[in-house]
Design goal:
- By secondary structure, the protein is an alpha+beta fold.
- Among the domains are: 82 residues, Phosphatidylinositol 3-kinase Catalytic Subunit, Chain A, domain 1 (Ubiquitin-like (UB roll), Roll); 165 residues, Roll (Ubiquitin-like (UB roll)); 108 residues, Pleckstrin-homology domain (PH domain)/Phosphotyrosine-binding domain (PTB) (PH-domain like, Roll), CATH 2.30.29; 106 residues, PH-domain like (Roll), CATH 2.30.29.30.
- The chain is built from 19 helices and 24 strands.
- The strands form 4 sheets. Strands 14-13-12-11-17-16-15 form a 7-stranded antiparallel β-sheet, with helices on one face.
- Helix 6 packs parallel to helix 9 and helix 9 crosses helix 17.
- The radius of gyration is 29 Å and the shape is globular.
- The two termini are 47 Å apart.
């Protein structure tokens, strides 16, 4: 038998702090505990000691020194490693968070601070009625971008000062699992479970979501742009190094908000992190399409992505289409709730490309054994050092994923002058419709870098066919692929939009039009042209798209954005192993690009399809990647944590496994396996 003094020696005092809203109630409690007391038992003892009647089910222990949650309630204090010096906070797992959405609106809602960010984002998207939550993530705003804003005007207000949309009464916010409600994973018609009538196809697909029709309209509709003065106050990257700062703030998807130092009611950015917009459907994705459109729009306006003057005017005209209808908010909302109008949207978009990889395949079954080929006279341009470019016409044949060229058509039966394998190359459009210039810039990987080749086409049709073939070949596909014809049509559609900016049709007098063109273009063009000049050029293009529906206009904008050479590239400053200078690493959905920081020219491209394995040496924070043919690279990241790049690579590979045949239940375990890095 042990004495009472001996028994007492096994107990020790543990100080617990309770995070509750009762101002006059005690917040610190000293409990006598033993090492074999499990976490659930400690909770019970503490709640009895507090003696306040309320729902404590969402509360859990946060260990301040270790920066971790004690969520395994069956574990003992000894197993958790908790000793007398531990500072444990008994605090709610769900806390208020402010999120700045891609459309610059701010929503305030309760989010789980104890689950991994990947799961938290999924819950947030359920509240906001955004499908495919795996494409989004949370980011801190870069400290450098905030400093530059303050330097411009210390007394200036926040660029967009909107009323905060409060969504704190959601089931997810309350710590309850979200009910799938009206959401249909198989894209079948949705019906109201109460009345049995068809439910509005763009209002929330969660019956218990806090989004009312009015709130849904706020997230699914666009509003007039901010003033040029406000635009001037916002951070605009000028160099690749500046663009790299934009990608430094992504949170770790495999850790909780609390573990990453996020405070209650802090503001974070909710953004599309991965540029693979899978299965866009106007019938179900009103909010998602609008938020993608808004993210693209702000990227254009703030010059986060480069585009030509022609392209800027196209984007301006489509933007002008979106708010140009002088409708009230309620009448715009009807465009999303009236079934007949939704049907018109579906008809207008039936042949529209809305996915990155291309749309519906042709109804005609192609003979896959007959690989198509292209044969044309094209001009070959090879840059030469210390001299002018050499331009010469040859007979070109495109077969499989390679281009061969000959002196002329008659010599095509013999050996080619050169054969270019385009698999893994970079394809960059070099087009100026006004100057009738239709060029294709090819950056072909070779042992010591990239071989630069330019092809010049004679007209739009020839350019579209060859450009589409080059794009597919770079991905290892031939013209027999079902996405070839849609790719050709997409390119022709984009060229047609560029033609709009050159229209000679008579337009309304700019003086008679109530338009602020400075709201639709970046600051570079407001400095270059007078307001009347911009208005006239935007109106010329706008005439041709004035009959588009709102949704179609947004999808056209997204499609044009996807056609830009820099689309989908996230930049980071890195130092490659063995190198004495810093480089920029561009991460895309299917490849990594090493870019010269001084010139912006691509040096080398590595395709994910050739990747064998990748890992991180956490001691020296170095990412190592091994490719086919004994190619291996290693680098340290200087502009962000190496975990961010590691997660980007794994995340894109995870998203490439998605299929329309699957339901939308994600393999969360696979995501963390590919992105976690086993730190």
């Amino acid at each position: 038998m042990s004495s009472s003094t001996e028994y007492g020696s096994h107990t020790w005092e543990l100080l617990l702090t309770v995070d509750h809203q009762h101002k006059d109630a005690q917040k610190e409690f000293l409990l006598q505990v033993t090492g074999d007391l499990h976490i659930g038992g400690l909770m019970l003892k503490l709640v009895e000691k507090i003696n306040i009647a309320q729902d404590w089910s969402d509360y859990a222990f946060w260990w301040e020194q270790k920066k971790c949650w004690l969520l395994k309630t069956h574990w003992t204090l000894d197993k958790c490693g908790v000793q007398a010096d531990a500072k444990l906070f008994f605090t709610p797992q769900h806390k208020m968070l402010r999120l700045r959405l891609p459309n610059m609106k701010t929503v305030r809602l309760k989010v789980s601070f104890s689950t991994m960010v990947f799961r938290a984002v999924s819950d947030i998207c359920k509240i906001l009625n955004i499908r495919r939550s795996e494409e989004l993530s949370l980011s801190k705003q870069s400290g450098d971008t905030l400093k530059k804003k303050k330097k411009k005007d210390k007394n200036s207000k926040e660029p967009v000062t909107e009323d905060i949309l409060n969504l704190c009464n959601s089931p997810v916010s309350s710590g309850l699992p979200a009910n799938p409600g009206l959401y249909s994973k198989t894209m079948t018609p949705i019906y109201d479970p109460v009345s049995g009538s068809p439910a509005s196809s763009t209002i929330t697909w969660f019956s218990d979501s806090p989004l009312t029709e009015q709130n849904c309209s706020i997230l699914a509709l666009s509003y007039p742009n901010c003033s040029p003065e406000m635009l001037a106050e916002m951070y605009q990257p000028r160099t690749l190094a500046d663009k790299a700062k934009l990608n430094a703030g992504w949170l770790d998807s495999s850790r909780s908000l609390m573990e990453q130092g996020i405070l209650e009611d802090e503001q974070l950015l909710l953004r599309f992190k991965y540029y693979t917009f899978f299965d866009l459907n106007p019938k179900y994705d009103a909010v998602r399409i609008n938020q993608i459109y808004e993210q693209a729009r702000w990227a254009i306006l703030l010059e986060e992505i480069d585009c030509t003057e022609e392209e800027m005017l196209i984007f301006a005209a489509i933007q002008a289409r979106t708010p140009s209808h002088k409708l009230s908010l309620s009448s715009e909302a009807q465009d999303f709730t009236c079934e007949s109008e939704v049907d018109e949207v579906e008809a207008a978009l039936s042949n529209l490309e809305v996915t990155l990889e291309g749309g519906n395949s042709s109804n005609i079954l192609e003979d896959i054994t007959d690989i198509p080929k292209l044969a044309d006279n094209l001009r070959l341009v090879r840059p030469r050092k210390l001299s002018l470019k050499a331009i010469k016409e040859y007979w070109f044949i495109f077969r499989d994923t390679s281009i061969s060229y000959f002196k002329n058509k008659e010599s095509a039966q013999g050996e080619p002058i050169e054969k270019l394998n385009l698999k893994g190359c970079e394809v960059v459009p070099d087009v100026n419709v006004a100057a009738k210039k239709f060029g294709i810039k090819l950056l072909i990987p070779v042992a010591d870098g990239m071989n630069e080749v330019y092809l010049r086409c004679d007209n739009e049709d020839q350019y579209a066919r060859w450009m589409a073939a080059c794009v597919l070949a770079s991905k290892g596909r031939t013209m027999a692929d079902s996405s070839y014809q849609p790719e050709v049509q997409k390119i022709l559609s984009f060229l047609q939009m560029k033609n709009w900016t050159m229209s000679s049709q008579a337009t309304s007098e700019p003086e008679n039009v109530d338009m602020k063109p400075e709201c639709f273009v970046s600051l570079r063009y407001t400095k270059k042209y007078k307001s009347k000049q911009l208005t006239a050029r935007i109106l010329e293009a706008h005439q041709n798209i004035s009959q588009m529906s709102l949704v179609e206009a947004k999808l056209r904008f997204i499609q044009a954005w996807q056609s830009l050479p820099e689309f989908g590239l996230s930049y980071y400053i890195v130092r490659f192993k063995g190198s004495k200078k810093d480089d920029v690493l561009g991460v895309s959905y299917n490849r990594l690009i090493r870019i010269d920081m001084a010139t912006g020219d691509p040096i080398t491209t590595w395709r994910f399809s050739n990747m064998k394995q990748w890992n991180v040496n956490w001691e020296i924070r170095q990412v190592a990647i091994e490719f086919d043919q004994n190619v291996s690279i290693a680098f340290t990241c200087l502009s962000a944590d190496c975990k961010i790049i590691h997660e980007y690579i794994g995340g894109y590979i995870f998203l490439s496994t998605r299929s329309k045949d699957q339901n939308e239940t994600l393999d969360e375990e696979l995501f963390h396996k590919l992105t976690g890095g086993q730190e």
